[in-house]
Design a protein that fits this description.
By secondary structure, the protein is mainly beta. The protein has two helices and eight strands, in the order H-H-E-E-E-E-E-E-E-E.
Length: 149
């Protein structure tokens, strides 16, 4: 025996009588951002072979990212930490739904202070992309250990 749900005309009648046929206005929330369809989620992937130590002690990191066409990547901090040393770089730009490769230079606050060394470091990046027409936001956060070469 197959189960068949019973349909009722009562629900549409109740909606009509209470004037609830209009859906509520949408406002993005943290849950809505997390529940965005997989196809629309911003993606950030670190290219580990491209964390390069520069002569001045700063680091250049190549970041691969993909986000939906028509969205714009907001400028977000890229954080690199090695021991007690923490430094920041920034990345932004437009999205075209293809994998894009961007180079992020991570600057130390004090050029005379501690320098990055070859070896493992923790990288953190949040990518927020916005649809300029609708205001829709998509957010992805990534934290990975990469090797500075």
């Amino acid at each position: 025996m197959q189960y068949r749900p019973k349909t009722s005309l009562l629900a549409p009648v109740i909606l009509l009588l209470c004037g609830c046929s209009e859906p509520p206005a949408f406002s993005p929330s943290e849950n809505a951002l997390r529940m965005a369809p997989q196809a629309k989620r911003a993606q950030v992937v670190f290219d580990f072979r491209k964390a390069r130590l520069l002569d001045d002690g700063d680091v250049e990191v190549t970041v691969r990212l993909r986000c939906p066409e028509g969205f714009e990547a907001l400028e977000e901090p890229f954080v690199l930490q090695q021991g007690d040393l923490t430094a920041f770089g920034f990345s932004g730009g437009t999205c075209d739904a293809h994998w894009d490769r961007r180079t992020v230079r991570v600057f130390r606050d004090d050029p005379e202070g501690p320098r990055f060394q070859r070896g493992p470091a923790t990288a953190r990046m949040q990518l927020t992309v916005e649809n300029p027409t609708t205001g829709e936001l998509l957010v992805t956060q990534v934290e990975e250990v990469l090797t500075i070469r």
